[in-house]
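Researcher: Watch the backbone:
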Amino acid sequence: MPNDLPPPVATYVEANARLDAEGMLAPFAEDAVVLDHGRRHAGHDEIRTWIRSETIRSNAVFTPGTSRERDGRVVVEGLTAGAFPGSPIRFTFVFEIRGETITALEIA
């Protein structure tokens, strides 16, 4: 994992490695938004459901390879491996951060 990840992103990644749904949710702001597979998940309840259905159910673990800042966002690229077709798959996670919380996450 890159050493330069902002604390809320590092918290998310570390919790994902343990497949800890509540730990993954913890760094998100109450009004955060996640965009994944063309779907929008807003707020803790929807993000929790998304984490459980897309990550925990398929044991999907994201391993960051590189990170950089672009237009005020943190862009993290790496492989996601788990029990899903095509595993592992390279993904780009784009995080928006405010203070110590993730306000948005877009996965491409």
About this structure: The chain has a mean pLDDT of 96. The two ends are 19 Å apart (CA to CA). The beta strands are 28-36, 39-42, 61-70, 73-81, 89-98, 101-107. The CA atoms of residues 73 and 96 lie 5 Å apart.
